[in-house]
Structure formats: C-alpha cells, structure tokens
Amino acid sequence: MRPDVTAFFDEPTNTVSYVVRDPSSTACAIVDSVLDFDNAAGRTSTDSADEIIAWVKAQGLRVEWLLESHVHADHLSAAPYIQKALGGRIGIGENIRVVQDTFGKIFNAGTEFERDGSQFDRLFREQDRFAIGALEGVALHTPGHTPACLTYVIGDAAFVGDTLFQPDFGTARCDFPGGSAETLWDSVQKILSLPDATRIFTCHDYKAPGRDAYAWESTVGEQKAKNVHVGGDATQEDFIRMRTERDAQLGMPKLIIPSIQVNMRAGRMPPAEEDGAVYLKVPINKL
C-alpha cells in the first residue's frame, strides 16, 4: 500500500518531519518532529510542532505513532509535546540503551536517568512489525551514524533518518560515539536492497552545491544509481576511506549539547533542580 506522506521542513535545523497517513482511514504517524530551541537564550518554543498539530487536527487524523529514527544531534524532538496534544506512542530502536549508556556517562546524568529505554513507549527490534491503520510498517536496524538508527519501511516508503541524504549529498557522518563507517555501509546496502521503486524520505537536506531548492524525496533506484557516496561503482573500501577523511574535517552540530540530553530522554528535559528550574549541562572536552 502507498501511504500519503506530508513533509514539514524546519529551515533553522534543516530537518524534515513527516506525517504518514493510511489512505484508507484517519490513522497516521509522525516521524522525527522538531522542538524549536534558541541555543543562545536557552529557550524552547513550539511553532514547528504546532504547525503539525494544527494540520493533523484540520485533516481529522488520529495519531497512532510518534516515530524517532534515532537520537538526533541537530534538533530537539517535540514528541512528548505532540503526544500530549494528539496522543500516539513514542517509538525508537532498541539500541537506544547503548546511546543512553554512552551519553549518560558523557553528561554525568546520574542515577535518576534510567538507561533502559523506558522513557519510550516502544523499542523496535530488527524486523518488528507495527500498524498505522491498515498500513503495515517494519523496522530495519540501520546503525552506523549512531547505534540506535532505524529505517521505518511503511508501505512503499522508507524513512531513513540520517543514514542517507539526497543522492547529490551522500550519506551521514559516522564520527559520533558508537558510529562506524563500516557499519553504515552495511546499513545502506540493506536499504538499497529494497525494491527500486521504494520512496526514500530523508530527515535532513542542506542543498548540495549547484542545487537551489531543498529536497528530501528520492527512490532506492535513484540512490543506487546516483548517490555520490554509495551509488554506481562505489566500493566499501573507498566509502570507508572517504567517510573517515571527511568526518575528521567536520565540526560538531551546533545543537548537539542540548539535543542529545533531551532526545535520549525521549524529548523530555532533565528533571528540575531544587530551585524548580531545568538546566542542561555542557561537558568540557568530552565531545
């Protein structure tokens, strides 16, 4: 079955969120939502999430899932905020536990931070099935960018998170803790083994040189033929060398410090301290 997919692009973080609808009912899922964050001021706002909420309500849809492709390092998730307004279950890959353990230590999160994935409503394992109305979805474990990365295949559409970008931009970085270029290559091959007509929806776009418009949809066939990192005659050896050299030149995402602390908690802030205020930590020389 072919789901109806509506994209919402957040230009400040170059993030694409999706509403995925069962065309035979009012059931839908929301993939990779965004909570707006002013890093300089330490202030959140909900304009991006409110746009999705308003659209879902206007369409008369019923949210069944709030799906996270991974623990994002470049934007904060709005999943709990949207869940409060629209319902639905928050899901992510079961390897969130690995990410929580790693970053729980980096941020010295303390014993109050459970590292068992219990902040999420569903931890997906490889090949786990789920439903959005009459649509069937399947979770594919596609690590490499992070250990917890998932691709959600829903009907003829695959939501690949950061694993792939548009064919003219390539693939995700692999230098975060737990990342691996070798593992990412294997994950990409898993995605490219899907039927050529499968629609690929990416989580970000940064407009490759020479392209004037943002874009986030391609197909498996297009990725196999044209992806500048893994398409055509690309080899695993060449990819690993390219990715390793390229990643060594990249700076950290500007929102990685707040994003990881919030997203490893399923989009929730750390607990308030004695004065009733919420604080985010900045680990020095750890990233």
Structural summary, described in words:
The longest helix has 13 residues, at about 45-60. The model has no long low-confidence stretch (mean pLDDT about 95). It is built from 7 helices and 14 strands. The radius of gyration is 18 Å and the shape is globular. The protein has helices spanning about 45-60, 80-85, 95-105, 180-190, 220-225, 235-245, 255-265; strands at about 5-10, 15-20, 25-30, 35-40, 45, 60-65, 90-95, 120-125, 130, 135-140, 150-155, 155-160, 200, 215-220.
**Helix content percent band:** 10-25%
Largest sheet, described in full?
6 strands, mixed
Overall pLDDT score: 97
Strands of the largest sheet, in order across it? 1-2-3-6-7-8
What spatial form do the alpha-carbon principal axes imply?
Answer: globular
Number of helices: 7
Strand content is: 15-25%
How many individual β-strands?
A: 14
Which class best fits the helix and strand makeup?
Answer: alpha/beta
Q: What Rg, in angstroms, do the CA atoms define?
A: 18 Å
Give me the oligomer status: single chain
Identify low-pLDDT runs: none
Task: Spell the H/E element sequence.
Answer: EEEEEHEHEHEEEEEHEEHHH
Distance between the termini: 43 Å
